[in-house]
Design brief:
It is a single chain. The chain is globular, with a radius of gyration of 19 Å. Strands 3-4-2-1-6-7-5 form a seven-stranded mixed beta sheet, with no helix packed on it. By secondary structure, the protein is mainly beta. About 20% of the residues are buried.
Length: about 160
């Protein structure tokens, strides 16, 4: 990114709609993206002080910032995907990241001027998944409980 007048920022919070393993191709231009919840006042103040807008749609995300990285550059060449690592800094194994996972998200703010509009946006640089909620695993929210078990029934046979 040519414009580096802003320092990179690290945000820790719950993440939603993480399209970081595969880019989101629902809209053009296709991009990797994630919504990261803003959970502390210091982070909010830092983001707002440089002109970034914090969103709130009245859902589970609460206050959040959307970070994106387009898959192609202005010249049409491909961009590298954002780097994704686990809590121990191991490379990500490409499993999908579900809503409510906790992560640290590194962003690079930049100025934009496009189609008569200008402002500040952010490039999604990297993400460290701290607490994974696996996408598409409906049993992940359940824990072992005392009570009926098929295993107990099999032992009795």
């Amino acid at each position: 990114m040519a414009n580096t007048k802003y320092d990179q920022i690290l945000i820790k919070g719950k993440v939603y709609w993480a399209s970081v393993v595969e880019p989101n191709t629902t809209f053009e231009p296709a991009c990797w993206q994630v919504d990261v919840c803003i959970e502390d006042e210091e982070t909010r103040e830092k983001l707002e002080s440089i002109g970034l807008t914090i969103k709130n749609k009245g859902d589970d995300r609460g206050d959040f910032l959307t970070a994106k990285r387009k898959i192609t550059k202005k010249d049409g060449s491909e961009r590298d995907a954002p780097r994704i690592i686990d809590a121990k800094r191991n490379p990500w194994d490409n499993r999908l990241i579900g809503n409510g996972s906790v992560a640290k998200v590194r962003i690079q703010p930049f100025d934009y001027n496009f189609a008569g509009k200008s402002g500040i946006s952010v490039d999604l640089m990297a993400m460290q998944v701290i607490d994974l909620v696996e996408y598409g695993n409906p049993s992940a929210e359940f824990k072992d409980e005392e009570g009926f078990s098929i295993d107990d029934e099999l032992v009795a046979l």
